[in-house]
Write a structure and sequence with these properties.
The protein is of the alpha/beta class and about 130 residues long. The chain has a single domain, classed as OB fold (Dihydrolipoamide Acetyltransferase, E2P) (Beta Barrel). The chain contains five helices and six strands, in the order ααβααβββαββ.
């Protein structure tokens, strides 16, 4: 199956990143705390976090460029589930130097749980700083 994206779909993460660029995060928390909130009470967490701008910190699980149309950086939060921070093409270059297990801070807009891919999705993510090694 071939997936054809429009220019708007390909650039979605960049558009979201630009929209929230100067927005003060509604929440500052670890990726693990965000995941735990959804794990404990999905409906309550969705009410609190979906569509909100968050500043997440945690250890990088990996950078995925070639699984699906949009690259993402995943946080280490659970052996199976992951918090995915979707990236624009420009932001991939800023995440690329980071390695698995390294602490990273990402700003993005919470999308919600994706049961198909066992992930909690955050869109328009940008590196804020690398945190402590």
């Amino acid at each position: 199956m071939v997936v054809v994206l429009t220019d708007d779909e390909e650039n979605r993460e960049g558009v979201v990143a630009e929209e929230i660029k100067n927005v003060t995060p509604d929440y500052t928390l670890t990726a693990g705390q965000l995941f735990s909130a959804y794990e404990a009470d999905e409906e309550g967490a969705a009410i609190a976090y979906k569509g909100k701008v968050v500043l997440l910190s945690g250890n990088m699980r990996g950078l995925v460029r070639d699984y699906g149309p949009v690259p993402y950086m995943a946080f280490e939060v659970d052996p199976v589930w992951k918090v995915k921070c979707f990236l624009s093409d420009e932001e991939v270059a800023r995440v690329d130097p980071f390695r698995r297990g390294q602490q990273i801070h990402m700003k993005g807009k919470v999308g919600g749980l994706d049961d198909r891919f066992l992930s909690l999705d955050v869109h328009g993510c940008t590196v804020q700083d690398k945190g402590a090694d």
